[in-house]
């Protein structure tokens, strides 16, 4: 193949054609369309990934990677906890007792879930709780609430609040809900309203007494793990025959993350159509070039140029336009990523999204998928006009043109 001839003609066809400006304009539109498509795909995938990871991080805080639960009453006890702690020293365990409760201060009331925990153990696996606990020494009937509860009830450090539990106390001929006054010490802010308006923490001993739980028995054990999927399988084996089960965060929130994954896939396909539409301009530009250069192509073929060389010329013209658009789109995408990551160009309502800053995180797998998808579309779009360029009747063209 005559590479010098191919390169010379490719450079000629890439120059702006003053006689047929629409051909060059179509090529420019193809270049711009591919660039914008790649840029938008990079930013969209980064935002989708960042949003999913931000929600995952928030959900980890309150839902925990793994949770052991009892399948029957009194099946989850201190003996089992000690056994697991010795068997898995790399994991962090926090036993808890939980109950629904209504909290009242003055005339204001709010409902939610209260967890009785061991402060030192809970602080090791829950950074939000750890920040709220600080250097405080929790007494038995002290309470930490979500910021939504403390704001609604106007609680300050040392304020007294009454908690009403779903358990009932018999009093003569009637039944009264169990109640107890707690001392408010601090509040936490998880960034998610659902938790800030409903979660409360107190000591394990307090709920054991109020709910008449036997010492050493729990409603569940929260576990922090760096590899929840692998550790869950190991723990399942250790829990056989104990009447206790284990659940992972992905099972508790499976529908939510499945919906986000489906949305991300749908968005990827839709935005890839931008590149596909832009590639139509590559096809039209090359087809118009072929039609306007029929005489030149015929002369080249008659002078000894091979069909492969002609096909290579137009294939290279299309791929240069497309690949230049891809590279420009990558550059624009990363510039946009840097701007969005370092400047508050877009701000979000924190109570809805969990963070005021736009979360960004571009996964390498997504980036590679974008590049592969764009390259395939460009190559396919360039191949069809290139193959058409060789389907010319040389004699007929030279006779008539």
UniProtKB/TrEMBL annotation:
Its main location: membrane. The keyword Cell membrane applies. The chain crosses the membrane at residues 21-48, 266-292, 313-340, 360-380. It is found in: Cell membrane. GO terms for biological process: lipoprotein localization to outer membrane. One of its GO terms (cellular component) is plasma membrane protein complex. It is a multi-pass membrane protein. This is Lipoprotein releasing system, transmembrane protein, LolC/E family. It comes from Arcobacter acticola. The gene is lolC.
